[in-house]
Amino acid sequence: MRFGEIELQHLGFIHHLAISQRRLRSFLSNFTMADVEVVDPKKCLEESCKPKCVKPLLEYQACVKRVQGDESGHKHCTGQYFDYWQCVDKCVGPKLFAELK
Amino acid sequence: MVGGGVIQQILRRKLHSPSLATPVRSWLSSKTAHVDAGSSGVRAFALLGAGVTGLLSFSTVASADEAEHGLACPDYPWPHDGILSSYDHASIRRGHQVYQQVCASCHSMSLISYRDLVGVAYTEEEAKAMAAEIEVVDGPNDEGEMFTRPGKLSDRLPQPYANESAARFANGGAYPPDLSLITKARHNGQNYVFALLTGYRDPPAGISIREGLHYNPYFPGGAIAMPKMLNDEAVEYEDGVPATEAQMGKDVVSFLSWAAEPEMEERKLMGFKWIFLLSLALLQAAYYRRLKWSVLKSRKLVLDVVN
């Protein structure tokens, strides 16, 4: 069977992929447990959910500015803080356990 | 605050309008014996002002309730949530390891024995070996003396403090609660404990927590005595799972859920079986009732009008 040019290109691609997979495996095996930085998936997801919760975050930051000048010590931003974190939690909640064992 | 002021403005305007003033005055004159024409309007205004102040103070109390109840925790999709889902026993095993290495120094679990772990998280030999590591006071012996011996399967998990007073003294007056039933003892317990353990954050602007306490939005009031205990890689799991904060939180809550509800799997199986059987019985009973009543329900009444 004669190989056409397309078939040759495909074979070349697959060959290339096999080589790169081998390289990737040897690259990863050089890392021992001590070397790999564990990233907490919850923190990671909270960061990725920040764009979804920009509105409450901006409300909170506006409140922080207002409170900064306060001398009485009674003003605080718990409400806006809760609104922001409730939004983030709602976003993170369904996704988190998929990242865990 | 602003809303209250606006309400007050509107009320003042309404009060000074002629349409409202006369009925108010007549109402006041019917109630009181001596009514001064000038002061009745002031009295009405004072009453309305008192009502509005009450409303304003209520609103400030309502905003303080937010921190009092704590931030509502989200619902996480626990693997044992479904009507026929069992516990993740590998997670229970890891969770017990987290409890032993991180939590047991302050929290007791005095309702759980080593034998309860057999077949759930450990084999009998493993559980026996774990029990043998602790010293238990037993006795009295034949000479009437108390003695210490290595633990057995029938012994309870060891308590870190002799009594509540010792526990409070060692923890700045706060008592680390027993964890045997904690996921049932708190509203939305599983989600609450997970959110609490992984939810230590910086407090919002304007909130300061005194020395010795830590801020946690999920804890009612916001100031909890327990510091953040779950930190990445605090524990090295036997099965090689990376011990991130969230992973340890999930595993320890799975363990605590099992500890509070060890019968859950049997309960779900029994529930599914009996609800199925009883619904069949219901269908049979409904058919039988209708069969017996069909005699009466298919009666025909003839109205004989002649004489």
Automatic annotation (TrEMBL), chain B:
Keywords (A to Z) from UniProt = Electron transport, Heme, Iron, Membrane, Metal-binding, Mitochondrion, Mitochondrion inner membrane, Respiratory chain, Transmembrane, Transmembrane helix, Transport
The protein's matches in Pfam families, at most eight in alphabetical order, are given as:
Cytochrom_C1 (PF02167)
Q: Which residues form the Cytochrome c domain?
A: 90-246
Coiled-coil ranges (or none): none
Q: Which residues form the signal peptide?
A: none
What is the superkingdom listed in this entry's lineage? Eukaryota
Write out the annotated subcellular location. Answer: Mitochondrion inner membrane
Family per UniProt?
Answer: Belongs to the cytochrome c family.
Protein name, entry field: Cytochrome c domain-containing protein
Tell me the organism: Brassica napus
Write the lineage as a comma-separated list: Eukaryota, Viridiplantae, Streptophyta, Embryophyta, Tracheophyta
